[in-house]
Amino acid sequence: MNIQRWIARREPDWKRLDALLKQVEKKGLKSLQAGEIKELASLYRSVSADLARGRTQQVGDTLVQDLQILTSRGYNQIYQGSRRQEWQGVVEFYRWGLPAVVQQTWGYIAAATALFLLGCLVAWWYAWQDPAFLSLIVPEHLIRMVRDEGKLWMGRIVGIEPLASSDITINNLRVSFGAVAGGITAGVYTAFLLVFNGLLIGAVATLVGQNNLAYPFWAFVFPHGSLELPAIFFAGGAGFLIARAILFPGQYRRLDALLVYGSLAVQLVFAIVPMLMIAGTIEGFFSPSPLVPEPVKYLVGIVLFTLLVRYCSRKKVANG
């Protein structure tokens, strides 16, 4: 191989790759046009081949080193850079995309919230009218503990916090994913889960209220409930989005509607999972702790819920 002729023939590609890489390193991969991105990938492959040839043909240590640096820069931008952009995309979604999805689907989330609150009101009404109603919803051992012993059950978490936290998170995820998947039943199962959980909370709240334990009970619920309950409402909203695609596809074919509304539902799931993980940690470690004063627990719950509302209300302002 005539080394000088080979270098003269290949050098324009090396310089072109160097120019493209300098632009990417300065302004990012998004600064390139689609054709330039394809050119970058093609040049990277060809220069990598040149490096391999240069090593076998003994073209000189300096040139081999220059080609090694050039291919390393290309690898970093093409492969590591794409991963970096993926992470940037995740950050951008949680920063602006998720609040936009919540605002776009607020009607479905509101419907889920209304069904839950309806269950709470029904349970509250019947529990005050007929004390026997509680035994239909609340486990008997909890009723005995509250009525006969005048105690709440949260103290049992103390000492087994890690186990309790993981169990709580898994249970909440199971309920939430059940509400999402319930959309395929045209929303019937989703609605059932929301009403049933509302009945349970309403019945328990009435039980502790009747026995003068409402204040410590809500002090326990507020910190994690400020995230846990909205997450369940988001899950219900996601289920109703899927149900909407099945029942009322509108201008779309049913399959296309499932893709459109299902995409929104999946994006809501990306909110549900971290919210429930945080809530489970709070419920396992913070909410039942006897070391934390009850007013502080109320304050933490209020602050978390306020931050959640502010986050979901965010709107990205277009530049220019």
Low-confidence stretches: none
**Share of β-strand residues:** under 5%
- The total beta strand count reads 0
Helices and strands: which structural class? mainly alpha
Element string (H = helix, E = strand): HHHHHHHHHHH
Average pLDDT confidence is 86
Report the radius of gyration as a whole number of Å.
Answer: 29 Å
Specify the number of helices: 11
* Overall 3D form: elongated
Describe the fold and architecture.
By secondary structure, the chain is mostly helical. Helix content is 82%, strand content 0%. The chain is built from eleven helices and no strands. The longest helix has 44 residues, at 61-104. The chain starts with a helix and ends in an 8-residue tail after the last helix.
SSE layout and pairings?
Blueprint: H1 3-27, H2 34-57, H3 61-104, H4 106-129, H5 134-137, H6 140-149, H7 161-181, H8 188-210, H9 214-247, H10 254-286, H11 294-312
Helix pairs in contact: 1-2, 1-3, 2-3, 3-10, 4-8, 4-9, 7-8, 7-9, 7-10, 8-9, 9-10, 9-11
In short:
The chain has helices spanning 3-27, 34-57, 61-104, 106-129, 134-137, 140-149, 161-181, 188-210, 214-247, 254-286, 294-312. The protein is mainly alpha-helical and 320 residues long.
Key structural traits:
mainly alpha, 320 residues, 82% helix
